[in-house]
Write a structure and sequence with these properties.
By secondary structure, the protein is of the alpha/beta class. Among the domains are: about 1-130 and about 165-260 and about 390-415 and about 465-528, 3-Layer(bba) Sandwich (FAD/NAD(P)-binding domain); about 325-375, no CATH class. Helices cover about 25% and strands about 25% of the residues. It contains twelve helices and 21 strands. Strands 5, 6, 11, 12, 13, 14, 15, 16, 19 and 20 form a ten-stranded antiparallel β-sheet that branches. Strands 1, 2, 3, 7, 8, 9, 10 and 21 form an eight-stranded mixed β-sheet that branches. The chain has a three-stranded mixed β-sheet with strand order 4-18-17, with helices on one face. α1 runs parallel beside α5 and α4 (about 120-125) crosses α12. It is globular, with a radius of gyration of 25 Å. The model has no long low-confidence stretch (mean pLDDT about 95). The chain binds flavin-adenine dinucleotide (FAD). Flavin-adenine dinucleotide binds near residues 45, 46 and 235.
Length: about 525
């Protein structure tokens, strides 16, 4: 059932079993799990079904650390959350090392191994409409013997990302929730603060604000916060007690260890053999592979191996090829395709003839492999990197003095990188250079600094906000426990990548949904 919170009389107190705050990927996935469960669910969503600048403005804040260029565009505040903006829906698994405690990496380690999550990863796949679970190279037609030597270990290996159809969670799953008699979605309902017992114990209620000045409360047996990786922390900090301590913040950890994935390019491989078989590595847009009867899109990428990360205490790093368009192919298209006619025919002809057997090989390959064929011959392949940001308590989310339309303190992002992050990028680049040279695959041309203290000039943080309510068994090292429950608050849970203890280089949403499904099972057990 859907209700517009603007119609709820001021002062109303809603009683429910489970209150989920936030209707994005995590909140909607959680709510769906309770349909027809007999458990009364109230989902509070800040926005409506369409974007509204006044509501989006509630996300505004300031950026005082290392410049976070896409801070304002990286989250979306209406039903469906940031899935209203995502353009790729690329999903992959963490590697087992991402979950392990690494003695040389401070704050590393989740409370359980990656394998613990496998049953829920399998259930999360269809939620993202990804099709059957399977991330082995052979699932995608890539044989080890077709991978060139430098990417077959020991330092680098090849992994895959799957792409689902772009699922806008609000549009796609909204109708199901609208039909559900035990789930009520309140649109335009902003959680303002949680009201908890002063000395620990349960949350009693959440105060809800409706623009411009509506107020009501929701009382529940269990609350789950699913407002995205930045707002999750802000909401706990805004729910401070009389002593000014935010909810779950007895150890000052809420908002700390804010992590993004680090994106940069600035490098290319000059291939020794321009006819090298590149079919193991798909470009930016991936390739289609017929898997278990259906055509599915995937991207294969090169990753620093777990073995090397473990041995050298390095953060994760992955790189993808950005295949350039071949001018000879464009010339050929202009010559043979009537709809592309134009340009200088003599010059195009000379370009095609000049390409010689390489072009013939490419055209034959293209016929054989369809659109999946990477361009060949290639002199150089530009690269695009993603590096892991390691947990760092100084990189953090706080609340400042500026106020939003409800009079609540706006978020302040103080994003910081560490010497360890820089060492990871420099060492990873150096290893790549050495491996390319050793194997004879090519030469790395790069402006990425390989010494101490300098960063790639184009480095920027991406849109994955992780770590601000991190998971750890020990309340002195994390905000939530292994079940995503806020330490010291018996009925408050967090969903989303704020709970990630480390972020690797994996795209987060598959893991967000996996943890949400696991949390739903846990909460059902508690409520039934
Ligand atoms: C351009 C772009 C591309 C992306 N591509 C990918 C990709 O390919 N693969 C991938 O894995 N991830 C990708 N992401 C990230 C992905 O969108 C997020 O990981 C995912 O949406 C996070 O889900 P969430 O539910 O935690 O947060 P969100 O989806 O952001 O949802 C949070 C919800 O909480 C609501 N809310 C906030 N505050 C309150 C409040 N006080 N009261 C009530 N409600 C509130 C918001 O309105 C929103 O609906 C991309 C993101 C962007 C911006």
């Amino acid at each position: 059932m859907f209700t517009d919170a603007r119609l709820v009389p001021a002062g109303t107190v809603i009683e429910t079993d489970l209150c989920i705050v936030g209707g994005g990927a995590a909140g909607i996935t959680l709510a769906r799990e309770f349909i027809n469960s007999g458990i009364r669910v109230t989902l509070l969503e800040s926005g409506g079904e369409q974007p509204d600048p006044a509501i989006q403005d509630l996300y505004a804040g300031s950026d005082i650390g290392r410049r976070y260029e896409i801070f304002q565009e990286s989250r979306v505040r209406y039903f469906g959350g940031t899935t209203n903006r995502w353009g790729g829906a690329w999903c992959d698994l963490p590697s087992p090392l991402d979950f392990e405690t690494r003695p040389g990496v401070a704050y590393s380690g989740w409370p359980f191994p990656l394998s613990e999550l496998e049953p829920w990863y399998r259930r999360a796949q269809p939620v993202l409409r990804l099709g059957p679970y399977g991330y082995a190279l052979t699932d995608w037609g890539i044989a080890q013997e077709n991978i060139p030597e430098p990417f077959r270990g020991p330092h680098f290996n090849v992994r895959v990302l799957q792409q689902g159809p772009i699922t806008r969670f609000g549009q796609y799953y909204g109708p199901e929730l609208r039909q559900a008699s035990n789930v009520t979605v309140y649109l335009n309902a902003n959680a303002l603060r949680f009201d908890a017992n002063e000395n620990g114990g349960p949350v009693r209620q959440v105060d809800v604000g409706v623009l411009p000045d509506g107020r009501f409360k929701v009382r529940a047996r269990i609350f789950i916060v699913a407002c995205g990786g930045i707002e999750n922390a802000r909401l706990l900090l805004l729910s401070e007690n009389a002593a000014g301590i935010g909810l779950g913040n007895e150890h000052g950890l809420v908002g700390r260890c804010f992590m993004l994935h680090l994106e940069y390019a600035s490098a290319a491989i000059a291939l020794k053999n321009p006819y090298a078989n590149l079919l193991f590595q798909t470009g930016e847009n991936g390739a289609i592979y017929k898997r278990l009867g259906a055509k599915r899109r995937f991207v294969s990428y090169i990753s620093l191996s777990d073995q090397t990360k473990r041995a050298l205490d390095l953060p994760a790093m992955r790189l993808r090829f950005q295949y350039p368009r071949l001018p000879q192919i464009d010339a050929l298209r202009r010559l043979v395709l009537p709809q592309e006619r134009g340009g200088n025919r003599m010059r195009d002809l000379a370009s095609v003839i000049g390409a010689g057997p390489g072009l013939t090989k490419y055209v034959v390959g293209r016929i054989k492999h369809g659109r999946n064929m990477p361009p060949s011959p290639l002199a150089a392949i530009p690269l695009r990197f993603t590096a892991e940001q390691l947990p760092n308590p100084d990189s953090r989310i706080t609340v400042g003095e500026d106020r939003d339309a409800f009079g609540l303190r706006k978020v302040v992002v103080d994003w910081r990188l560490s010497a360890e992050d820089q060492r990871g990028i420099a060492t990873g680049t150096r290893l790549l250079r050495e491996e390319l040279g050793r194997s004879g695959f090519g030469e790395l041309h790069s402006t990425i600094p390989e010494g101490e203290g300098e960063w790639p000039s184009d480095l920027r943080g991406d849109q994955h906000h992780m770590g601000t309510t991190r998971m750890a068994r020990d309340p002195k090292r994390g905000v939530v426990d292994e079940n995503c429950r806020v330490h010291g608050v018996e009925n408050l849970y967090m969903a989303g990548c704020s709970v990630f203890a480390t972020g690797g280089t994996f795209n987060p949403t598959l893991t967000i949904l996996t943890l949400a499904l696991r949390l739903a099972d846990h909460v059902k057990q508690r409520l039934q």
